[in-house]
Amino acid sequence: xxxxxxxxxxxLFIDNFQWADEDSHKLLQALLQPPTPPHLFILTSVRTSSAxxxxxxxxxxxxxxxxxxxxxxxxxxxxxxxxLARRLYRSLHKDEERELGEVALDIARESSGHPLFILELVRxxxxxxxxxxxxxxxxxxEVLQSHISLFNPMERQILMMISLSHSPLPLNVLAQVMYLxxxxxxxxxxxxxxxx
Length: 196
Fold this sequence. Notes:
The protein is mostly helical and 196 residues long. It has helices at residues 2-7, 22-31, 50-63, 78-92, 103-111, 115-127, 140-148, 153-164, 171-177, 182-195, and strands at 10-14, 40-44.
C-alpha cells in the first residue's frame, strides 16, 4: 500500500465492516502504524441499529489512529426510491421499451427506501411480469420467500445458519455445524453467490 499510495491517490473501501473480525482489525492497525503509514483514504460501510451506532463509532475511532468522520445514511425518499426502481427496471430491459409506470411507487413503498430491497423487488417483477398485471404488488417477504424457495434444502439451511450468526462464520465451523465436508459446502456457497 505504501508504494502504491506514494504514486497515486488510494481509496480503500471496506463494505460491511461490522463483519470484520479481530484479525482484520489487527491487519488494519498494523497497516496504519507510525512511523510511515501509507496515505490512504479509508471508506467503510457499517450496518448497525441506532443503539449499536455509538458503540461502533467508538470502536472505529480506537481502531484508526487518525480522524474519523461518521455519516449516517437514511433511507431513500419515496421519489428517489421510485426513480431507482425505474432505472433498474430499464437496465434489465435494455432491448425493450418497457416502463415501470405506477408500479415504481409500489416498489418504493414496499422497500421502505432500502436500495437492496428495491433491487430484489425489481428483479422479481422483471422475472415474473405476468404475475402482477392488474394485481396488487407483492410484499417484500413474499418476494424473498419466492427467491429462497428456488434453493435446495441444504442451501436454505446454510442461508439460515449464516443469517443467524452474530459474526462471520469460519468455513470449517459452518461445515461442522452443517455436517458437510468442506468441498460440498464450498460448492453450495458458490451456487448461492452466483444466484444472488
